Amino acid sequence: MTHPSSVVLTPDQNPRAARPARRRSPLRDAWLPITLVGLSAAVYAAAAIYTGQFAQLSFGGIMGLLQRMVALGLVAIGQNFVIIAGSIDLSVANLISVCAVMASYLMQGDAHAIVYGVVLTLVIAALVGAVNGLLVTRLSVSPLIATLGVGMVLQGVLSVAFTTLRGAVPKSFQTIAYGSVVQIPYAVLLLAAALGIAGYVLTRTVSGARLYTVGGNAHSARLAGIRTARVMIGAHVIGSLMAGIGGLYLASWLGAGTPWVGRDGGYGLDSIAVIVIGGTLLAGGRGGVAGTIAGVFVFATLDAVFNMLQIDPFLSQVLRGAIVILAVGAYTFRHKGHVA
Questions:
Q1: What is the DSSP secondary structure assignment for residue 278, as one 8-state letter?
Q2: Cα–Cα dist 53/61, whole Å
Q3: In 3D, which of 305, 41, 293, 66 has the Cα closest to residue 183?
């Protein structure tokens, strides 16, 4: 007698076998970013109507809101690569200051030195990222300790070498922050380009797939033949490069780099917070730039609403912390019992 489990059903007899596996709906993955952006936009519009600041709802007002997102958005996109890989970078805030100061120091207000200053600044950022990655992979130092230590070194160098402002970026370089095309700021276009490239790399390339694999399970990735150390170092280099671009943007916005611009801006912890709000796992292996940029939008609208309502901006830090806690709690509860 044939055992039931040994009977092989044809596709006609077993419709489930014949039916192709259903692909995960893109809309299912987009529900969180859409919800975050929708709720934030509704609160922003309500605050503008309540305070009578209808100019905030104009095209120019919306562009101004989006420009609030640029610096944090650039840093968060890079931080997203690092966290997806299963690491973290606490040096980005001080690296932003280093890059902003170096851009000003190298350019010295000379338009002919823009290319030189930008290239050398990004090279410095990439080297810092490589050092972070090597400390984590080759010396097996905890990412928290390694990147925190590197950040402290960078802050020390700034404090010793740049006690006062030295140099400034040329007026033509400030076009990045203040210029526009068809009323759309160049800075917003820069953020959109960075977002598009990052999204493509993460979802459409082999490198992106390897990044998720390493973040999900580094041991299994290693057994599968993936050079996990190279992937991790690459993620840290990308994260630092994006922080470097953020520093260049802030130098363009301020006209000169300051040793405290990154630290006082809170870009280190804020970049992690918006990623968490956007649904990226701190443990690595899951997440995306859509949720991250939605988290940046939440913080930008929060600041704008507090300004319109003339509420103490320090209270926004309290609300930011509460939002992060609620987001993590809701995400944990929703995935309780599931394997990440």
A1: T
A2: 10
A3: 66
The neighbouring-strand residues paired with 185 are 180
User: Please, which pLDDT band fits residue 258 given cuts at 50, 70 and 90?
Assistant: confident
Q: Quick check: 78 and 240 in contact, CB under 8 A?
A: yes
Nearest one of 234, 309, 264 to 71, comparing CA atoms: 264
User: Could you please report the per-residue DSSP string of 284-300?
Assistant: SS---HHHHHHHHHHHH
Residue 79: partners with Cβ closer than 8 Å, 6 or more residues away: 88, 89, 92, 239, 242, 271, 272, 275
Q: Are 97 and 262 in contact (CB under 8 A)?
A: yes
Residue 268: CB atoms within 10 Å:
24
Contact 95, 273 (CB under 8 A): no
pLDDT in tens, 204-257: 999 999 999 999 999 999 999 999 999 999 999 999 999 999 999 999 999 988
What is the per-residue burial (b if ≥16 Cβ within 10 Å, else e) of 94-128?
bbbbbbbbbbbbbbeebeebbeebbeebbebbbeb
Q: What phi and psi, each to the nearest 5 degrees, are found at residue 241?
A: -60, -40
- CA–CA dist 338, 323 (Å, integer): 23
Task: Report the C-alpha gap between 67 and 192 in whole angstroms.
Answer: 11
In the beta sheet, which residues pair with residue 180?
185
**Which DSSP letter does residue 225 get?**
T
Q: What is the pLDDT of residues 272-294, one digit of tens each?
A: 999 999 988 888 888 899 999 99
Q: How far apart are CA 65 and CA 71, in angstroms?
A: 12
What average pLDDT is seen over the chain?
Answer: 87
For 106-148, give the DSSP string: HHTT-GGGHHHHHHHHHHHHHHHHHHHHHHHHTS---HHHHHH
Q: Look up residue 320 and give its amino acid.
A: R
Give yes or no for a contact between 135 and 141, defined as CB atoms under 8 angstroms apart: yes
Which of 3-37 are b and which e, b meaning 16 or more Cβ less than 10 Å from the residue's Cβ?
eeeeeeeeeeeeeeeeeeeeeeeeeeeeebbeebb
